[in-house]
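name: query_chain
kind: protein
chains: 1
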Amino acid sequence: MKQKEGSFCFKTAMGKHAKSVDSQVLARVHRKGDGWVFTPSDFLDLGSRRAVGLALMRHTKAGTIRKLARGLYDLPRQDSRVGLVAASTEEIANALKGRDSVRLQLSGGHAANQLGISDQVPMRTVFLTDGPSRKVQLGRRQIVLKQTTPRQMATAGRISGTVIQALRWLGRQNVDSRVVAALRRNLSEADKKQLLKDLRYAPAWVAEVMREVGQRSEA
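structure:
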């Protein structure tokens, strides 16, 4: 009889704990707000990995949160015209960066588009990383993390890193006065000064373009 009572008390305590983890997970999600992309790692201070995983599974089934890919979720934004809005690439990257404790640097066409020097919006977004290479499939979109050299990651997280990768993607033959003018127009004075500080990390021809973009900051 004592064993049964003890077992009942244990199960009751476990049930209360599970509800507590559920409610704490949900409370944190709502505090972060619509559009937040997260992984189970963002909740491990609230309970065991299993308890957090079960909580996320229950909230996903309830339609409270959305599962984007394995181990990747968001609190979707609602738009009155289009309904659920797709999670932003930047938010997804931030979630992956935090989970894996790695640095990421946007590259390719997305880097150029972000800077306003290309109208293309590729379905495949490539981030350079100092962590392992991997791919995340999100419907028709794909996010690729590509492991690279320490030199390539030297400017990760700075505007100069994005400019270097965007110019490399465009190619020397496609960088003309219009590209330089667009960068001058779209970058702040602080951004231009950062370009001049990071010239040594860029290939020679890219460094020349960066110097031309940032030269007004020297005046």
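note: The radius of gyration is 23 Å.
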